[in-house]
Amino acid sequence: MAEVIVRKAKREDCKAIRDLILELAEYEKMPDQMEIDYKTLERDGFDGQPLFFCNVATIDEKIIGYTLFYYIYSPWVGKAMCLEDIYVTPEFRGKHIGDKLLKSVVKEAVENDCHQLDFIVLNWNPAQEFYKRRGACDLTEKEKWHRYRFSIDDLRKLASDA
Predict the structure, then answer these.
(1) Which of 41, 58, 82, 103 is the most buried (most CB within 10 A)?
(2) CATH code of residue 62
(3) Dist CA 77 CA 64 (whole Å)
């Protein structure tokens, strides 16, 4: 196998990243929930103050995986980071590429004085074991935290009552 290079994503990577996001949505059995296009990724990640950061894994300059993350703030510990996605195309899984992508985010978190790295994993996804082998703690089991969400329709309804 050729050398795997993990690097910061560039604006011109957004089409390939968007395709991989769709692959991940299909893997997670939720392709109908994906609404983002590459232009939105370009705007939100590369114009003005970025809303997210992204690293890509490449072989011979072809993008075969990505990780998407952003900074958050915890009132308990201060600066923190949220890992939104790690994805590696099926043909390159089991070759430690996910590990390289995770370590690229962890390195950034440590270098930028983050006190924790938060992420979620679907309850059926075998990636849970990937994270647990590296020391991650399942907060749903340990601390009984549950993650909730307001959809855009819920937001609009609540905002109309404000």
Answers:
(1) 41
(2) 3.40.630.30
(3) 34
